[in-house]
Design goal:
Blueprint: E1 12-15, E2 18-21, H1 23-31, H2 36-48, H3 57-63, H4 70-84, H5 88-101, E3 108-115, E4 118-126, E5 131-136, H6 138-141, H7 144-159, E6 163-168, H8 169-174, H9 176-188
Parallel strand pairs: 5-6
Antiparallel strand pairs: 1-2, 3-4, 4-5
Helix pairs in contact: 1-2
Amino acid sequence: MVRQLPLLDDETAAISGIPVTSVSRTLLDLAAVLSKRPLERAMNEAEVLRLTDRLSLPDLLERYPRRRGTAVLRTLLRDDAASRGVTVKELEERFVAFVDRHGLPQPRRNADIVARGRFFRADCLWLEQRVIVELDGRAVHGTREAFEKDRERDRILLAEGWRVTRVTWRQLHDDEGGVAADLRRLLIAAPQR
């Protein structure tokens, strides 16, 4: 038996006269039929496209607390909120502890380097191996301007023989072993000069 309930006005919109569900309502509906990873991708895509509604996902979760899929949606929102509020200092401290746990050599932190006559500050630098790890937090690196500058910087450093990789709070939390294995490989590989 299929049960249909009418949608409230703030859960719908009209685009070119065609009725559609709001972005938040669409994500709530998707949560009922998608597993965690595809739902996370849909949420990310909505964020990348800057699709917002006056009715938020937390509002809908409060309105429909027992709806199918709300548990995974709450988890994703909690994970996102936790990583969004991370300060640069917290991320740096977590990375230092991560390096210690995995027996990796300690990098120089907040090191200045020159490439093409420009000064750059590297979050973590292994000079001999020519490896740089940038610790990316969304608060600092999430703007359009930061996105462009980060890519320009990475391109210049790569062309000058540096190997730059970016590590996020979520990667350190969800894939610590993978990050450690990749960093170990970068540090062991002979520098390309």
